[in-house]
Amino acid sequence: MPTKNFGPCSIIDCTNTDIKFRTITELSYEKCCMKKTLEAYSYLENTFASSVDMLTKALYFQQRRKCTGLELDPVNFERIIKTINSGLKGFFNYLTNAIISKEHSAYNISEAKKSVVGLCYLIAGLRNKFVNWHKLEVGLYLRASGATWEAIDTMSSLGYSSCAKTVDMYQKKVQKEYSAKIEHYFLEHVILNYIFV
Description:
This protein starts with 25 loop residues before the first helix and ends with a helix. Helix 4 (91-99) crosses helix 5 (106-127) and helix 6 packs across helix 8 (164-196). The chain is built from eight helices and no strands. The protein folds into three domains: 14-45, no CATH class; 47-131, no CATH class; 133-197. With 197 residues, the protein is mainly α.
């Protein structure tokens, strides 16, 4: 039960208990940013730690709940994280501006933004081990490139890749699923076509 306010701002006969009335709205937040009144109330702004937490939850939601793959295109990545959590609006640009120098050429900036996307996945993976598809993709790439188990495990210990055993188990799982799909296809289409011909 909310506490009752007995001051000059007390509200009488209000039956609405929605939490929305106790939070700052997006419009009021934008007005505060434009008038620079948030400098006195810095606790209302998202900190870097809270933004990383929101990013981790957004990527977890995308990978584990929606079962979508990695998004490595910077424009689409920014759109996706803003769609999942509006509190991340401007966070990708904040990271990009902090990491990439303005003196770079346009091509180098666009290429560096792809690295920032990878960095976002690595940061989220450090915070939550289940946001790890990026590391698995790196491990699969290393495996396809002919890297040894030791090389993959070294990259894993640095935090850039999944361990070689995880990569190997995932490859076996994909092979098994692919074999089952092929078998199912032949059972449905080839045998039925053979009977009717």
